Sequence to fold (186 residues):
Amino acid sequence: MVQFPTTLLRAALIACAVSVLPAASGVTIETALAHEFKAGALTLNHPWTRATAKGAEMGGGFVTIVNAGNEADRLIGGSFALAGRTEVHEMTMDGDVMKMRQLEGGLAIPAGSTVELKPGSYHLMFMKLTAPLEAGATVKGSLVFEKAGEVPVEFAVEAISAKAKDSKAGGHGAMPMGGAGMKHGG
Ligand SMILES: [Cu+2]
Fold:
């Protein structure tokens, strides 16, 4: 009869739990909330953000950008009516630590490509929020491109628990910003 020490078993269970990787798939888009904005060859699908807890200072902005043209562009910034400042960010996992950094040169939107800004990945970072974001609301803002210029959009505010299907990490809203385990650069 073979018996595993319980500590070993427990370690194995924990290893299993943390090794569950997010499945690769697109962002869930609620049909009822689907909306899009166009600027030349660019289509901005379903800009959205997440409701925030009272006192939250930051939020994440997400959108799918389709470049149907044959010229590359770059997302270099944005704006959000309820934020003091908006930056283009990248989130990566370093082991089990989430790291975010500002993409100083912007985010490349190659010709004929689709680029997703989604939780756990590229996102707009809304800094210095001036009011809590309430689910169900829409908030005016914009995306700024190197070539297409500033494109006005409206961000749908989704539930605080809303996340892309493929993002176990959750990113903004799921975790207190700047909390333990998260390093925020810049
Ligand atoms: Cu960020």
About this structure: The chain has two domains: 1-30, 35-161. The helical segments are 6-19.
